[in-house]
Amino acid sequence: MDRSWPSFAADKREATKVFRRRKSTARILLSAFFIPLGIGFGGMSLLLLGLRLMPLPAGGSAMPTEIESADGTRIANWTTTGEAPQNVPLAKIPEPLIAATIAVEDQNFYHDHAISLKSTARALIVNLRHGGVVEGGSTITQQLAKNLYLSQDRTLSRKLREALFAIQLELHKSKDWILGRYLNVVYYGHGAYGVQAAAKLYFNKPVQDLDLAECAMLAGLPKGPSIYSPIDHFERAKQRQRVVLERMVATGYLTQAQAQAAAAEPIHVAVHHTPVVTAPYFTDLAVREAKRVAHLSDADLDAGAVRIKTTLDPLLQRAAERAIASTLPSQSGIQAALVAMDPKTGAIRALVGGRDFRTSPFNRALAPRQPGSTFKAVVYSAALEHGWTPAKQVDSKLTTFVYGTSPADRYTVHDYADVYAGRPLTLREAIARSDNVYAVHTNLAIGPQNVVEMAHRLGISDQMKPYPSLALGVFPVSPVEMAGAYAALANGGLRVSPHVVDEIDTPEGRTVVDAPSERVLSSDVAFQMSDLMQSVLGDAGTGYGARPYLHAPAAAKTGTTDTDAWMVGYTPNLVCAVWVGYDSNRPLSVPESHLAAPIWGKFMGTAQAHMPGGWFTAPADLKAVRIDPLSGGVATPECRVAETDYFRPGTEPTEPCPLHSPSTPQQTKPKSGLFGWLRKLF
């Protein structure tokens, strides 16, 4: 026997040792596999039990971008359809749309349970390779869970919560319920949520009336609503439709011949209409401002979950629309714009950009037009700042100004209808009458460049030229800019930033609109202008037509060119600019040139009732002096007409009125008898 081999007994003993070692190793391996597996199954059972016992969260569908007024009232859902999602029972949704959706989104929907392990594993590998979520793999149930309960961010933690909510959904709801809910909340683009809104948007028909070709095109949209939109990218939509039809063939719902016939069928996409919403000019501007401030795209707004809180006051907005509608001739093509602003903050409380947004969405509140004599408030603010006083007098007569050495440097000024006072006017009278001679004289006396600089300080952006005609408002300004400029007079000298949005909430967080203010004018000058412009609403003022509608004091200025009619004015609580004219720059008739004042008056009367308040208080360093406007001197008891004006220290008149002082020979004549009676009478 070859002793190099162990004996049988030894072999047996060695084999037994080997077997025991292998058995021990097998036990360890089996324990390492089955114990965690058992714990995993136990943990999974507990998790499923917990999800089953736990009620579903109170979730909603992904909603369109919401636009709110300042008091929180919803004024619009910014969707193309202009409608909130409408629930349609699954039984009323066409079978081809259901089949197309399942074929292209989750062909094993009725066989898998909440999560597709194969799709999830494939997506997980891709996402790990890229270091983030770049591929989905979500089932219809997971997509519904995301729409109902989660944000749209693409993170691994959100995907995990999505999976848990999907499991919970299937523990609580039937497959038909899940599919029906999905079809009623999924986003189809352009602000359309759900199959009913999408059918109306793209094909202008209820979802029940869609044919196979339309169903296939609709089913292809949720994967990329902006990419495959038949409104914006029809050829891409057709390519996506063909993909959906091929999937329907692969799942056995269609034959190849049926798919080809559907692909060849002409698709008639409905005309894209702008939604009709509350305060449409304002709302459109709010959306644009929100996009700029929060760096949002059209797709971000259309996808929803965005809340835009605006500055709108619904009552004032209705008053603005009513004032325009009740004043403009119904059969005329004349247009109007109105901007009402909080002078303290720049928040626009009401805005109308035209008569009818549906027929003309052009926003005239933003359109530059010649402001005419409303620009004189800028001229006189600069003048007061450069030493002029309310007692300053200028002769009102036809005047030719020489402003240079060239023979061409002549400018002849005409007042409206060539009617002049024929005597010197104080600043208050010049503002009330809107005297052009006084304005041009002021402009040239203080220097036109100082007027331009004042306009820019007040927020007017036009690159004006220092011409004599500058004083008459020949350079275009928008109603929003004019309201902003007058706001500085109403708030004591601060330039504010006109804005229509206060806050923007997105899934990424909240953006608060910054509306800074800057002092550009002394409080003294601001008050002097406010006090002087009250005269425009007086008996001899050009804005007298607005006075019957008012309930309290206001400051204002009218303006008229051949093609534009304006009235801009304010109270301590609100500033309002009104423009009336034709888009074509057609000349205004005489009656049309007087339409701005009643619009302004009707609106401001409502505003005064809605926002009651006092009048401005004069700064402590200003001195009130009663003067005779005929002479500019301090009024005496003999002066039959007098006005109270405010002066900065050292600028007030001190000499009594030379026309009506006790030493005037006229005053020493007998005051009795027939002559005295006649003198008093006249």
From TrEMBL:
- List the record's Gene Ontology CC terms alphabetically: outer membrane-bounded periplasmic space; plasma membrane
Q: Where in the cell is it found?
A: Cell membrane
Renumbered residue ranges of the record's region Disordered: 650-672
* Residue ranges of every copy of the Penicillin-binding protein transpeptidase domain listed in the record: 337-602
**Polar residues: which segments have biased composition?**
661-670
GO biological-process terms attached to the record: cell wall organization; peptidoglycan biosynthetic process; proteolysis; regulation of cell shape
Q: Where are the transmembrane segments?
A: 28-51
GO MF terms on file? Answer: penicillin binding; peptidoglycan glycosyltransferase activity; serine-type D-Ala-D-Ala carboxypeptidase activity
The cross-references to SUPFAM superfamilies, in alphabetical order and at most eight, read: beta-lactamase/transpeptidase-like, Lysozyme-like
Q: Where is the Glycosyl transferase family domain?
A: 74-248
Keyword annotations of the record: Carboxypeptidase, Cell membrane, Cell shape, Cell wall biogenesis/degradation, Glycosyltransferase, Hydrolase, Membrane, Multifunctional enzyme, Peptidoglycan synthesis, Protease, Transferase, Transmembrane, Transmembrane helix
- One Pfam short name: Transpeptidase
Keyword Transferase tagged = yes
Catalytic activity field = Preferential cleavage: (Ac)2-L-Lys-D-Ala-|-D-Ala. Also transpeptidation of peptidyl-alanyl moieties that are N-acyl substituents of D-alanine; [GlcNAc-(1->4)-Mur2Ac(oyl-L-Ala-gamma-D-Glu-L-Lys-D-Ala-D-Ala)](n)-di-trans,octa-cis-undecaprenyl diphosphate + beta-D-GlcNAc-(1->4)-Mur2Ac(oyl-L-Ala-gamma-D-Glu-L-Lys-D-Ala-D-Ala)-di-trans,octa-cis-undecaprenyl diphosphate = [GlcNAc-(1->4)-Mur2Ac(oyl-L-Ala-gamma-D-Glu-L-Lys-D-Ala-D-Ala)](n+1)-di-trans,octa-cis-undecaprenyl diphosphate + di-trans,octa-cis-undecaprenyl diphosphate + H(+)
Task: Name the InterPro entries for this protein.
Answer: Beta-lactam/transpept-like (IPR012338), Glyco_trans_51 (IPR001264), Glycosyltr_51/Transpeptidase (IPR050396), Lysozyme-like_dom_sf (IPR023346), PBP_transglycosylase (IPR036950), PCN-bd_Tpept (IPR001460)
Q: Which family does it belong to?
A: In the N-terminal section; belongs to the glycosyltransferase 51 family. In the C-terminal section; belongs to the transpeptidase family.
Q: What is this protein called?
A: Penicillin-binding protein
What organism does the UniProt record list as the source?
A: Alicyclobacillus hesperidum
The opening ranks of the lineage are:
Bacteria, Bacillati, Bacillota, Bacilli, Bacillales
